[in-house]
Write a structure and sequence with these properties.
The structure holds 3 protein chains of 3 kinds. Chain A folds into 2 domains: 45 residues, no CATH class; 114 residues, no CATH class. Chain A has a 3-stranded antiparallel sheet. In chain A, helix 1 runs antiparallel to helix 2. By secondary structure, chain A is mainly α. Chain B is mostly helical. Chain B has one domain. The longest helix of chain B is centred in the middle third of the chain and has 30 residues. Chain C is an all-alpha fold. Chain C is flat and about 50 Å long. In chain C, helix 2 packs antiparallel against helix 3 and helix 3 runs antiparallel to helix 4. The chains are: A mainly alpha, B mainly alpha, C mainly alpha.
């Protein structure tokens, strides 16, 4: 039940942002549409609603994950621009394996997205059973799985673990 | 003041869009092109949208620009991931100067083990 | 050979940019706003980027190259719509941008699935 309520509220917020400033007629249609969405999708979208009740996680998400992410995106763009306009194309591409210790779906999805937008790396495939990510690296500095994991994923993994996994009771799953 | 700042963001976004599309032409194979183009064009377009938000302010167009930033930065990596996976599974090889390919090795082992077990 | 190509390409690019920046553009519907000249030229730079994508669509050696270029073209059009919103002051251009982003994402996913499934059927 709480999952449907959360989905209804978030759909209503997105709807009222889409036709800003909300007036009563639009809001009525929005309540109807968001109710339809919540009834049809139900429990599919929000999996662990008890995580949303911790203000600590919002704090980490907005003040630790977002600034690190934006800084890495800026570095990635300058790096790619430098490689593209260099006359000799300084690239040594390859696909390496890295290991991650995250388990929940949304954490792995966000980790793969962050990897794709950070310097020189792009996730190609995810093996969820063994927690292995295959990553295309534009400048391979290490072929060893541990060393590559340390360079690529460790930065985001620490932050995402505090946001999505700590204290939820499924670390040892 | 906000106009000038917004136009500055739009100029930065244009420069990165141009670099991304240049990478689409210059780099040698699908994966490198995907990497350069996805990163630079996503960040460039998000920067253009943020500049549009700064110029227009909190009206309906500005709010829609902010929503569009969130939407683009969530969906573009997913699309890039899907294309890279599909390209590798349909057998498009890496550039000849590539250093290492663990994914092809693991896929080979998978196919062989499924053959022997069946 | 490689450095000669690089030199020719960079000279062409800088010549295009200088031409766009220096030539007076007769675009009528931008003239009410103070920052008109810059935004009118910004559209031309985005058109150059879209032209590069079209080159990759026509010349791409594999289907995956073409799919990448179509995806990037969709994102560029969202930026185009944002600049049109700023320069004309009409907010429905942003609606077109959002709708285009959604459609382009779904289309790219469908094309990527097709690329992946072609091999599995054999």
């Amino acid at each position: 039940m709480s999952q449907k309520v959360i989905l209804f509220l978030s759909a209503l917020i997105v709807w009222s942002l889409f036709n800003w400033v909300p007036d009563p007629a639009h809001l009525l249609v929005g309540i109807f549409a968001a109710g339809m969405v919540a009834l049809l999708l139900g429990d599919l979208v929000v999996e662990r609603p008890h995580l949303l009740a911790h203000p600590r996680r919002y704090f980490y998400f907005f003040f630790q994950y977002i600034p690190v992410f934006l800084w890495e995106v800026l570095k990635a763009n300058i790096d790619v621009a430098r490689r593209v306009i260099h006359p000799n194309l300084p690239i040594h591409p390859g696909i390496v394996k890295v290991k991650t210790s995250l388990r929940s779906d949304i954490a792995i999805t966000l980790l793969a997205n962050s990897i794709t937008l950070t310097p020189g790396t792009m996730s190609v495939d995810v093996d969820k059973d063994q927690a292995i990510l295959y990553i295309h690296w534009i400048d391979v500095r290490s072929r060893d799985i541990g060393e590559a994991s340390r360079i690529i994923v460790e930065r985001f993994e620490k932050i995402l673990r505090t946001i999505f996994e700590e204290g939820t009771g499924n670390e040892e799953r | 003041m906000m106009h000038t700042l917004g136009l500055g963001f739009i100029a930065v976004g244009l420069a990165f869009d141009l670099f991304g599309c240049l990478g689409l032409i210059r780099l040698p194979d699908v994966y490198n092109r995907l990497q350069a183009a996805t990163k630079c064009v996503t960040m460039g377009t998000c920067s253009i949208l943020f500049g549009a938000f700064l110029v227009t302010g909190f009206v309906s167009a500005g709010i829609k620009a902010l929503l569009c930033i969130v939407f683009l930065s969530l969906t573009t990596p997913v699309a890039a991931h899907a294309i890279a996976r599909g390209a590798h599974r349909s057998g498009i090889a890496l550039w000849s100067g590539s250093v290492v390919d663990h994914y092809a090795d693991d896929r080979q082992e998978e196919v062989e083990s499924s053959k022997t077990s069946s | 050979m490689k450095s000669a190509n690089w030199l020719a390409g960079s000279i062409l690019l800088i010549a295009f940019l200088a031409g766009v920046m220096l030539y007076p553009l007769p675009i009528l519907f931008f003239q009410e706003l103070p920052h008109v000249p810059f935004l009118g030229r910004a559209l031309f730079i985005l058109l150059l980027s879209a032209g590069m994508c079209l080159y990759r669509i026509t010349r791409g050696p594999t289907p995956a190259d073409r799919i990448v270029a179509v995806d990037i073209l969709g994102i560029l059009i969202v930026g185009f719509c944002a600049i049109l919103t700023v320069s004309t002051g009409r907010s429905w251009y942003m609606d077109i941008g959002i709708a285009w982003a959604l459609q382009s994402f779904i289309g790219t996913l469908a094309l990527a699935k097709h690329l992946e499934g072609k091999r599995l059927e054999e």
